[in-house]
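Input record, target 12 of the design panel.
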């Protein structure tokens, strides 16, 4: 399907996570180990919040339709851009066209959204799903993916006020719509969304066999276990990361997000709870 990462912490050069680790997201775009496909070359995207607190509410985005591993502009941007919170995504299309408007992360106002997975038989369900989108939001849909439809359904259900409840309602609506059409195991997803202050990360599938998702251990805990790793001294205790599959070479640096659960990351902390579609 896809690979993605979400970072929150002290302002960091984006290439420190996108390119430098041994099994970086760029490496995963060619050599994914835990995804449905090993190659994720159907476009990419980057979304980031600036360090300037005045502009922090509005994220920037950069997308491309080619593979991330060969995009010179992405590499140059990552080497010069520092951000306290950013999303990065490499895409393997599940059927929708390869075009910029189908590349994650998607943006609405101060919110970003990215997804790995699919809605089964989306073409059969698409009309009913999109008719549920708030009429004021519907004209803002630019692409043709199930991922963007999920985003706008979540916005319709109150993502900006209560992200967890909105995503639970969105998934419940997709599953009930699929059931009416005789589509089983409708939802497969790992989703990240943010308002620039907090990150919400969800792992869920109707069949309870979800795509992989991991979150980083606390930096101070890793320093205690690996005092020999120089790079850990350069990181802040506030730095947290959520990824489709682990980066780097320390096997204990990441823990798996449990099945049917979500995490909220803010101020270097995380809260884990059960995810229950409504």
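The sequence produced for target 12 reads:
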């Amino acid at each position: 399907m896809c690979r993605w990462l979400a970072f929150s912490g002290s302002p960091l050069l984006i290439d420190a996570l996108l390119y430098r680790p041994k099994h970086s997201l760029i490496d995963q775009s060619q050599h994914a180990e835990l995804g449905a496909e090993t190659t994720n070359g159907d476009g990419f995207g980057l979304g980031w919040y600036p360090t300037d607190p005045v502009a922090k509410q509005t994220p920037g985005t950069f997308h491309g339709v080619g593979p991330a591993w060969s995009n010179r502009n992405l590499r140059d941007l990552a080497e010069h851009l520092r951000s306290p919170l950013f999303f990065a995504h490499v895409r393997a299309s599940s059927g929708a066209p390869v075009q910029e408007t189908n590349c994650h992360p998607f943006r609405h106002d101060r919110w970003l959204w990215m997804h790995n997975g699919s809605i089964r038989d989306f073409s059969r369900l698409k009309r009913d799903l999109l008719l549920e989108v708030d009429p004021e939001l519907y004209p803002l849909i630019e692409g043709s993916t199930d991922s963007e439809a999920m985003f706008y359904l979540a916005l319709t259900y109150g993502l900006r006020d209560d992200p967890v409840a909105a995503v639970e309602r969105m998934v419940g609506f997709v599953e009930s719509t699929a059931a009416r059409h005789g589509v089983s195991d409708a939802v497969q997803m790992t989703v990240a969304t943010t308002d620039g202050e907090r990150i919400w990360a969800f792992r869920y599938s109707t069949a309870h066999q979800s795509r992989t998702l991991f979150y980083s251990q606390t930096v101070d805990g890793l320093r205690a276990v690996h005092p020999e790793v120089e790079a850990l001294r350069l990181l802040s205790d506030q730095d947290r990361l959520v990824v489709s599959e682990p980066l780097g070479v320390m096997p204990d640096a990441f823990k798996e997000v449990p099945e049917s659960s979500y995490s909220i990351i803010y101020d270097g902390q995380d809260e884990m709870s059960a995810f229950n579609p409504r």
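Residues 158 and 207 are 26 Å apart (CA to CA).
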